[in-house]
Design a protein that fits this description.
252 residues; alpha/beta; Elongation Factor Tu (Ef-tu), domain 3; Rossmann fold; 2 domains; 5 helices; 12 strands
Length: 252
């Protein structure tokens, strides 16, 4: 006897279509976009969404926190031949559409067990930390101390330094923000008067100065793979737990 196969009407489609609501160019290879958040799309602060155009898709950490109405993304242009998706996204404007997978993914989320949260990043690697901090403040929490260290080559690559500086000034008891420039002698950085050097070279002194220990501190590394490997090689042997999220340029 032939059996009829019933369609699962509750199954989510593999891809959804969403519209670009806003765009802000930061530099000649960095920009922000805000896209519609599909109905029933949920995520944890620090997770990523998968967007694309045509058959090309890539994962991007979400800047927004879960309570916000739109999805905010910070994108770096990777030119061909290494880059496949970002050159296509670069050409899109407000009103254009992209595809998005219906579920967010990722394990790079807030781990609340330890009081001190040492968050280390390079350029776009700041994204999950912004999401986590926005959500933490939205939930009126204050039991942890967030130490956010961000490295960049040029001042205009920080992007969220204004927001993070304001948060650090507003909540000085539990948010610390230290941006650092690795090329202080470049003309583009002439106005810089903050920390200098690669971010991974600042961590040991910062840990010592703030009396951070493996018993009360978790480290997060997000961004350039070499930075993450350096952090792991240096601090895992000391007993620190290190969570990682790699941003490979080949995976634009």
């Amino acid at each position: 006897m032939e059996r009829k196969v019933k369609k699962n009407l509750l199954a989510k489609p593999k891809k959804l279509s969403t519209k670009i609501l806003e765009r802000k160019d930061i530099s000649d290879d960095l920009w922000l976009i805000w896209i519609e958040k599909p109905k029933d799309f949920s995520f944890k602060a620090g997770q990523y969404c998968t967007i694309g155009t045509g058959d090309i898709e890539r994962a991007y950490s979400i800047v927004s926190s879960p309570h916000e109405d739109t999805l905010e993304l910070f994108v770096e242009l990777v030119p061909p031949p290494e880059g496949n998706l970002t050159p296509l996204l670069w050409e899109l404007s407000v009103g254009d559409t992209v595809s998005i997978r219906p579920r967010a993914k990722g394990l790079f989320v807030f781990k609340p067990k330890l009081k001190n949260q040492l968050m280390i990043s390079t350029v776009t690697g700041i994204v999950p930390y912004v999401s986590i901090l926005r959500e933490y403040i939205h939930n009126n929490q204050n039991e942890h101390i967030f130490h956010v260290l961000q490295g960049a080559s040029y001042i205009n690559e920080f992007t969220y330094d204004g927001e993070l500086t304001q948060l650090a000034n507003t909540y000085p008891d539990f948010i610390k923000y230290i941006p650092t420039i690795s090329r202080p002698n470049e003309s583009e950085n002439a106005d810089w008067n903050g920390a200098t050097g690669r971010v991974n070279n600042l961590i040991a002194d910062y840990i010592d100065q703030n009396n951070l220990t493996p018993e009360d501190t978790i480290l997060y590394g997000c961004g350039h793979p070499e930075m993450i490997e350096t952090v792991k090689d240096q601090f895992i042997p000391q007993g620190f737990q290190v969570e990682e999220e790699r941003f490979w340029k080949e995976d634009d």
